[in-house]
Design brief:
Layout (H helix, E strand, L loop, with lengths): L1 E5 L7 H7 L7 H8 L3 H10 L8 E3 L3 E3 L9 H7 L2 H6 L2 E8 L2 H10 L6 E8 L18 E9 L9 H14 L6 E4 L3 E4 L2 E12 L5 E9 L5 H4 L9 H4 L5 H22 L5 H6 L7 E6 L2 E10 L5 E5 L2 E5 L5 E4 L2
Parallel strand pairs: 1-4, 4-5
Antiparallel strand pairs: 2-3, 5-6, 6-10, 7-8, 8-9, 9-10, 11-12, 11-15, 12-13, 13-14
GO molecular function, one term: biotin--[biotin carboxyl-carrier protein] ligase activity
InterPro entries: aa-tRNA-synth_II/BPL/LPL, ArsR-like_HTH, Bifunct_BirA, Biotin_CoA_COase_ligase, BPL_C, BPL_LPL_catalytic, HTH_11, Transcriptional_repressor_C
Enzyme class: ligase
Length: 333
């Protein structure tokens, strides 16, 4: 497995961010000495932090700090927590300071034949994507923005139910930290205490009937700042509010442990091996729900999922099966 630190426009600011990550006050003089630059050069760098949503605090006569500090990603810390089995399944771990979208970048690598068993993380995404074209808010140094590339033989049929199984893997990773009230919402959301904590976005490339590549994108809210959270257009949950103190690197390692094992075994086991686990965490089990695809609307009682991951809707005693795609699900008020 290789580790790579990818460069971006934030790369020049990384050294000063690492110094300020502890949340303590640092004088301009001490920062300049540590970085080997003048105090004026330090100030120019610090002014740029506001462009990335980082609230720098200045205390007259004492220096500068980032209130609350930053829990920066580290390939070394992630690798320390990964199981040996996971390390064997992971060919490369990429850490980026800033990127438009980890899914977009990894899809490009998959097209070049160089993305299998690659995990890509970013401190900040400028154009993160969610399901159905929604933006995924991912400011610098918060949450988890992770994509993993994998190749499968057998075409799209071999991937049936994969987004639901990834949800199960995420729930298992969160269970390691005793995160309470985690539930799964069909087809690819992870909820906590009745609101969305994380989302999964699968994107495919290649021959859809034979060998195809898939990029699994995961976005998880953790440590969102208030000014950023107000931009989210749906009820949301934040891991640090629900279960404070979980280090990001430990969380990423747990997610990769669960996800890499799932992907390695999925061609043999399929979704049926994860169906019971998904059903136990079903957010809307037995509840009246509304399904919508464009102008079409269906109502009924959520009756679980089948072995292929399709939602089963009980419509006055008639069971109908709905596959993912552009269908949205919500509870009836």
């Amino acid at each position: 497995m290789q580790d790579t630190i990818a460069k971006s426009s934030l790369e020049q600011l990384r050294p000063v961010l690492e110094l300020l990550a502890d949340g303590n006050l640092h004088s301009g003089e001490s920062l300049g000495a540590a970085l080997g630059v003048s105090r004026a050069a330090v100030w120019k760098q610090l002014k740029k932090l506001e462009n990335y949503g980082l609230a720098l605090e200045s205390v007259k006569g004492r220096g500068y700090r980032l209130p609350g500090g930053l829990d920066l990603l580290s390939s070394d810390k992630i690798n320390e927590r990964l199981s040996e089995k996971s390390k064997g399944h992971l060919r490369e771990l990429l850490l980026l300071n800033e990127v438009d979208s980890t899914n977009t970048q990894l899809l490009a690598r998959m097209e070049e034949g160089d993305g299998h068993a690659v995990a890509m993380l970013a401190e900040r995404q400028s154009a993160g994507r969610g399901r159905r074209g929604r933006n995924w808010i991912s400011p610098y140094g918060t949450g988890v923005s992770l994509s993993v590339g994998w190749e499968f033989s057998g075409g799209v049929q071999s991937l049936e139910g994969l987004s639901l199984a990834v949800g199960v893997a995420l729930a298992r990773a969160l269970e390691r930290f005793s995160v309470p009230d985690v539930r799964l919402k069909w087809p690819n959301d992870i909820w906590c205490r009745g609101s969305k904590l994380a989302g999964v976005l699968l994107e495919l490339k290649g021959d859809l009937t034979d060998r195809c590549a898939v990029v699994i994108g995961i976005g998880l809210n953790s440590g969102l700042r208030i000014e950023t959270a107000t931009k989210i257009d749906q009820p949301w949950a934040d891991l640090q509010q629900v279960c404070p103190g979980i280090p990001r690197n430990h969380l990423v390692a747990a997610i990769l442990d669960e996800l890499l094992l799932l992907l390695h075994e999925y061609p043999q086991r399929g979704f049926s091996a994860h169906r019971d686990a998904w059903t136990k965490l079903d957010q809307f089990a037995g509840q009246p729900v509304i399904l919508q695809a464009g102008s079409q609307v269906w109502t009924g009682i959520a009756a679980g999922v089948d072995d292929k991951g399709a939602l089963i809707l009980d419509m006055d005693g008639e069971l109908k099966h709905f596959h993912g795609g552009e269908i949205s699900l919500r509870g009836q008020v």
